Amino acid sequence: AADNPTEPKFALHDAVPNPFNPSTLIAFNVPQTGHVRLLVYNAAGRLVATLVNGEKTAGRHEITWNGRTDSGAQVSSGVYIARLEAGETTTSRRMTLIK
Question: In terms of CB atoms within 10 Å, which of 22, 68, 85, 97 comes out highest?
Fold first, then answer.
């Protein structure tokens, strides 16, 4: 039920720490089990890392991003966008890598 306060809401939490070096923890909630994608884009809008791409159960999940691309290269200092997609719902948060 939508009015059940114990039901997890769709949410992407601020990365901790932020700014970060060398890694940051990204936590998110999904209200129901289903396919979830957590993507990291650079400030120019290019996809640099896919952190989650698969089924997740309802509730809270945490993933650490080590500041690396999918191919393993270290990204440069700057602003990155974490984008959470679950079903038709998306949200994003900014995070900054400092060196």
Answer: 97
